[in-house]
């Protein structure tokens, strides 16, 4: 089958690799209907994470089950499924407590690769959720978004305790930040402020429910946010970038007693202990437990109550994956969808 492989920073190719097959009795093999490039795929692409030899790429996926192992009970061949970017058994104590992305048996799908024609999904019962039927084609981008960026933005909003009568600030205007806006509004937030200086992203943020846009960043951004919130800062802040600057901006934007949901994959972030101590904020984050939210998110999409697929502003055939990476790296595209 054809699959996307990163050979070195900046060198991504689509090439023939072996077809996936059932290895464990808990596996499924799916045929991808759509895949996409994630902001986190850009870290190794840009050389900010090591590339040790050829690396299969991709961890977001929707598709049709082709084959299941002998122990798989909840999905069957022919069903359309959405899964999380982390495979999880669904039965361990961590999964049952709502944190399947830290399952004791977790497998990051980025180790498997899903920017391909097919993929092996470990722990199919714990990982995959079947949709009520075969989706209309216009629902596919939104279902694909649920696999990671929507689920991650949603977790950011939940972790930040976004809700009625609260002001939520979102640091980061990539797909996760934009969907954090959508999530915060769905969860009832009164006011949603996004930090963004990019016009098309601002527009989409408004459509997803942002009430205010702050174009300054860093401490100037914090000052502008404080001006909007009576000098106090936001109740809830979603951090969706993962850099030192964004994390610092998130902490400084949060009022004492407030909550931060940090879902940008952290790179070279070190926090000042004393500043953290006196900030008096709650910090909760990490790889989003997307599987926890999938049934609810699929239902909202199926009923056409949310349209998170709008973050995809570029669609290319799988063979042009290299161009999809370039477009996202150069910020010409918010998020690129690949059709195998
Ligand atoms: Zn588990």
UniProtKB/TrEMBL annotation:
Q: Tell me which InterPro entries the record gives.
A: ADH-like_C, ADH-like_N, ADH_Zn_CS, ER, GroES-like_sf, NAD(P)-bd_dom_sf
Any coiled-coil ranges, and where? Answer: none
Alphabetized, the UniProt keywords read: Metal-binding, Oxidoreductase, Zinc
Q: Does the keyword Cell membrane apply?
A: no
Q: What is its cofactor?
A: Zn(2+)
**Enoyl reductase (ER) domain: from which residue to which, for each copy?**
7-338
UniProt superkingdom:
Bacteria
What family does this belong to?
Answer: Belongs to the zinc-containing alcohol dehydrogenase family.
The protein here is known as Zinc-dependent alcohol dehydrogenase family protein
Source organism: Actinomadura miaoliensis
């Amino acid at each position: 089958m054809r699959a996307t492989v990163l050979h070195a920073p900046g060198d991504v190719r689509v090439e023939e690799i072996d077809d996936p097959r059932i290895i464990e009795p808990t596996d499924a093999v799916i045929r991808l209907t759509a895949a996409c490039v994630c902001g986190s795929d850009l870290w190794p692409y840009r050389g900010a994470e090591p590339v040790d030899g050829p690396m299969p790429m991709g961890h977001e996926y929707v598709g049709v089950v082709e084959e299941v192992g002998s122990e798989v009970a909840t999905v069957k061949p022919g069903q359309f499924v959405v899964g999380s970017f982390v495979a999880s058994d669904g039965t361990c104590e961590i999964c049952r407590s709502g944190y399947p992305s830290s399952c004791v048996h977790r497998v990051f799908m980025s180790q498997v690769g899903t920017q391909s024609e097919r993929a092996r999904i470990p722990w199919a019962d714990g990982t995959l959720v079947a949709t009520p039927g075969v989706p209309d084609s216009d629902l596919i981008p939104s279902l694909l978004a649920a696999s990671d960026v929507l689920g991650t933005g949603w977790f950011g909003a939940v972790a930040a305790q976004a809700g009625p009568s609260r002001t939520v600030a979102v640091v980061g205007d990539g797909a996760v930040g934009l969907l954090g806006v959508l999530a915060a509004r769905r969860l009832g937030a009164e006011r949603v402020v996004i930090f963004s200086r990019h016009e098309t992203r601002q527009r989409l943020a408004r459509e997803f429910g942002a009430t205010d846009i702050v174009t300054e960043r860093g401490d100037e951004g914090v000052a502008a946010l404080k001006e909007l919130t009576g000098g106090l800062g936001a109740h809830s802040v979603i951090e969706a970038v993962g850099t030192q600057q964004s994390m610092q901006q998130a902490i400084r934007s949060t009022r004492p007693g407030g909550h931060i949901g940090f879902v940008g994959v952290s790179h070279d972030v070190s926090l000042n202990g004393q500043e953290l101590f006196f900030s008096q904020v709650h910090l909760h984050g990490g790889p989003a437990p997307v599987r926890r939210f999938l049934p609810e998110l699929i239902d909202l999409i199926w009923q056409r109550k949310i349209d998170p697929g709008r973050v995809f502003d570029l669609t290319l055939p799988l063979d042009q994956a290299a161009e999809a990476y370039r477009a996202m790296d150069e910020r010409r595209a918010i998020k690129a969808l690949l059709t195998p």
